[in-house]
Amino acid sequence: MPNFDPIIEKITDYVQSFEAKENSLLEAKTCFFDSLACSFLALKYDQVQKFCSIEYIKNSTGSSRVIGTDIKSNPVEAAFLNGALIRWLDFNDTWLAKEWGHPSDNLAAILSMYDYLKVERNKNFSFKDLLNLMVIAHEVQGCLAIENSLNEVGVDHVAFVKVASAAIASKMLGQGPQKMNSTISNSFIDGQSLRTYRHFPNTGTRKSWAAGDASARGIKQAFISEVSEEIYPSALSAKTWGFNDVIMKKDSLKLQRELGSYVMDNILYKVNFPAEFHAQTAAEAAINLKKSNKFKIEDIEQVEILTQEPGVRIISKKGPLKNYADRDHCIEYIVAWCLINGSLNSDSYSDVSSKDPQIESLRNCTVTKEDKNYTKSYYDLNDRAIGNKVSVKLKNGIIFHEEVKYPLGHKKRREESKPFLEEKFKIAMEKFGIDTEYLMKVYESNNLDDVDISNILDRIYK
User: Fold this and answer.
1) What is the mean pLDDT of the chain?
2) Which residue of 31, 400, 411, 455 shows the fewest CB atoms closer than 10 Å?
3) DSSP characters over 157-199
């Protein structure tokens, strides 16, 4: 049999054998519960309920459950809905590098495959098994993102979600190295999503379900490899027709870092602010300025935002903002809202909230610029800062400013974040009347060996 492209084989070798250490599994546990919190918080929105009522999914049969609902479907469609729920509010974990993304999107594949394999193939996984799978999925997606910028060629980051979910589904199915190589190669070949829906003038809610779609497609590739003997050894490197020539153009795909648990160990959580992550520290800075009570909104002459280069390129927007998806990816809107209200939540982006005339007044007098020091720290893998500085100039010439380099949820503020993350989870569960006693016991415990995964999962489905 021919050898596959080295990157594909490197991913396969890692996925086949990696076992995470206890500290990484505990971080994965926090990420697991945070992802569930995001799913339940999303369920209150009408558009989410419409997705959960898509007829061909709701009326299909299967053993894979959908978080917070009574829906049971096949693992592909269940992963689609689970991924949409986890991602909908832009509130789940984040990874920032040359490419960015949200590695907990892959939990959709893990949960859906868990149900399917338990019921249909009598195959069981422990809680530690699931957490180890999360560490692996985070690492595959996140390490691909470190060196490879899909956004620069107009392709969406969910392409890496698809690869990670395909690898995880393959592992859960028990596929050997050759089958896993085939699964991963197929996921690279599979059609990639354009970033059209993340940018003006086409920003839309597809960005909330794109990762669920990618996770589902990854699972599908794993199932295809079970019955097919096809192989695509040079899926990346084939001249003219391979992933590198078609998608990456001038920069071939790289995977230079040794795979381990780096991504999970350094993951970023969205603790208080459901907003695009490059704006997290801008929101915190603006809220701190508001809380200082040193000025009134009507006295502001100009707002200046100094941010990293991706913050300018991705979320600095002028002109009309059409919908929720447009607003939660606009750094000027986020800063304006926080300066006016001193807070930020999912309702801040609603059509009703956006009608406040003060928001447009502040957006019109806001200047957003790159600070090259912030950009340098952002790309430094030993620092990974996501700095923003918000300055407010008053009509009398007085200037107030606030700088925040590391967001709440960054590894350097992990201990500070823990109580907020725990409260985020508890509130999300209680809103749906879920008994949290056992769940909180697991959340707070460092002993993973005694955890009954069925006892957890049975509580999060109707």
Assistant:
1) 95
2) 455
3) THHHHHHHHHHHHHHHHT--HHHHHHHHHHHHHSPPPBGGGGS
Handedness of CA 14, 15, 20, 25 (dihedral sign): positive
Taking Cα atoms as reference points, which of 261, 259, 280 lies closest to residue 269? 280
User: Is the C-alpha dihedral spanning 267, 268, 272, 276 positive or negative?
Assistant: negative
Indicate the length of the chain as a whole number. 462
pLDDT tens for each residue of 17-70 = 999 999 999 999 999 999 999 999 999 999 999 999 999 888 889 999 999 999
Rounded CA-CA distance 378/444 in Å is: 31
Tokens representing 316? 């600095």
Total domain count, the chain: 2
Rounded distance between C-alpha atoms, residue 388 and residue 407, angstroms = 10
Based on the domain organization, do 141 and 66 belong to the same domain? yes
Q: What would the mean pLDDT of 144-171 be, rounded to a whole number?
A: 97
- Whether 2 and 237 have beta carbons less than 8 Å apart is answered as no
Segment 309-318, tens digit of pLDDT: 999 998 999 9
CATH number at residue 93: 1.10.4100.10
The domain boundary, picked from 203, 232, 265, lies at 265
CATH code, domain with 384: 3.30.1330.120
DSSP string, 68-130: TS--EE-HHHHHHHHHHHHHTTS-S-BEESSSEE-GGGGHHHHHHHHHHHHHHS-----HHHH
Listed residue (66, 42, 37, 346) closest to 215, CA to CA? 66
Q: Which residues contact 4 (CB under 8 A, 6 or more apart)?
A: 12, 181, 185, 231, 233, 234, 235
What is the separation of C-alpha 209 from the centre of its chain, rounded to a whole number of angstroms?
A: 11
Rounded distance between C-alpha atoms, residue 97 and residue 379, angstroms: 6
Question: Is-contact 222 169, C-beta < 8 A?
Answer: yes
Q: What gap in Å lies between CA 30 and CA 205, rounded to an integer?
A: 27
Q: Please indicate, yes or no, if residue 70 is contained in any of the structural domains.
A: yes
pTM for the structure as a whole: 0.92
pLDDT at res. 256: 82
The whole domain housing 87 covers 6-265
| H/E segment holding residue 305 | strand 300-307
Secondary structure class of 288 (helix, strand, coil): helix
C-alpha dihedral sign at 47, 52, 53, 54: positive
- Residue 337: strand, helix, or coil: helix
Closest Cα partner for 442 from 430, 431, 452, 429?
452
Look at residues 265, 291, 315 and tell me which one is the last residue of a structural domain. Answer: 265
Rounded Cα gap, residues 115 and 461, in angstroms? 12
| C-alpha dist (Å) from residue 194 to 150, 151, 158, 220, 435 | 10, 9, 10, 20, 41
